[in-house]
Amino acid sequence: MKPSELRKIQLKSRKLRDELIASPYSSVGSYPMFAVTSDGAALCHKCCKSEASQIGKPSGDCHDQWRIVGLDVNWEDSSLYCDHCGNRIESAYAEDQAS
Ligand SMILES: [Zn+2]
After folding, report:
1. 39 with 70: CB under 8 angstroms?
2. Separation of alpha carbons 52 and 78, rounded Å
3. What's the structural domain count of the chain?
4. Does a structural domain hold residue 57?
5. Does some domain include residue 99?
6. Is the pLDDT of residue 23 over 90?
């Protein structure tokens, strides 16, 4: 991978991290959001904040577990857990069913 490509990926990762920290809920509908990393793991917004330096850290490894590739809404997965802290990630529709 070229350094310029890696830099682009890092910038995107940082931007997504900042978005999730600023607003853990989607702008439309206020649905709970989480971050998806390059290795397919889920990260809650709290970990994005506490591990912000890790996520933004320049790394030569393109399989960096801290690289955020996207944000997603947890619609109805009542057993979605953050891969870092292990806390359950709130869902949009499965909460009522659990209670
Ligand atoms: Zn977490």
Report:
1. no
2. 26
3. 1
4. yes
5. no
6. yes
> What's the confidence (pLDDT) of residue 56?
79
26 Cα: distance to centroid of ligand 1 (angstroms): 18
Residue 95 alpha carbon to ligand 1 centre in Å:
18
Which pLDDT belongs to residue 96? 67
Contacts of 91 (CB under 8 A, 6+ apart): 32, 74, 75, 76, 77, 78, 80
pLDDT tens string 38-61: 889 999 999 999 999 888 777 656
Distance from the alpha carbon of residue 7 to the mean position of ligand 1, in angstroms: 25
Structural domain of residue 35, as residue ranges?
3-92
Enter the tokens of residue 20.
């999730």
For residue 2, report the distance from its CA to the centre of ligand 1, in Å.
31
